[in-house]
Specification:
Number of helices: 3
Shape: globular
Order of helices and strands: HHEEEEEEEEHE
Largest sheet: 8 strands, antiparallel, barrel
Structural class: alpha+beta
Strand content: 25-35%
Radius of gyration: 18 Å
Helix content: 10-25%
Length: 171
């Protein structure tokens, strides 16, 4: 009987810990999060296509651009199916400062973006932040091989993200 009760408590506690989020975001913030030491600022620059994301900037194909700018990047968002600009009040290029390996910040800690993982050739990457308020799988082209998509999702799950809430963005 004691074993049955202990097993039941273990199952219940495991279920509870998977759904905890202190931010109302997309990840369990009690899980440690890491940025990639493989990140190379020069190789990361350029155009990326959002494959899947949580933040839903737009329910249509989105292109991100990172261009070297001083001690970081100028970051832009473009909608691929229209010439529509980002929402009003957002400049065309937002300056991000590199604050650590694969870690960027714009306008203070509220606007943090980390490269959680990037493949060896900088073709596929995972973006997120410690708060769990955003997360994206990005690729250099709209076509992403299944093995790299699985690897990217595994990295997100390892960093506490609820990958069941990812939404497909790329065509």
């Amino acid at each position: 009987m004691r074993r049955a009760i202990a097993a039941l408590l273990l199952v219940v506690s495991a279920c509870v810990s998977e759904t905890v989020s202190t931010t109302g975001g997309y990840r369990d913030t009690s899980v440690p999060i890491t940025s990639s030491t493989r990140f190379d600022a020069a190789k990361f620059a350029g155009k990326w296509i959002v494959i899947e994301e949580f933040t839903m900037l737009a329910p249509r194909p989105v292109e991100l651009r990172f261009r070297p700018d001083g001690n970081g990047y100028a970051f832009s968002v473009n909608f691929l199916d229209t010439n529509e600009a980002p929402p009003s009040g957002i400049p065309p290029f937002i300056p991000y400062t590199l604050t650590g390996p694969g870690q960027m910040e714009a306008d203070g800690p509220a606007h943090v973006m980390w490269v959680l993982w990037v493949d060896e050739d900088h073709r596929t990457a995972v973006l997120g932040n410690p708060q769990g308020t955003m997360g994206r799988i990005i690729n250099r082209s709209p076509r992403l091989r299944g093995d790299r998509l699985r690897a990217a999702r595994e990295v997100m799950a390892f960093n506490g993200y609820d990958t069941s809430r990812l939404v497909r963005v790329a065509p």
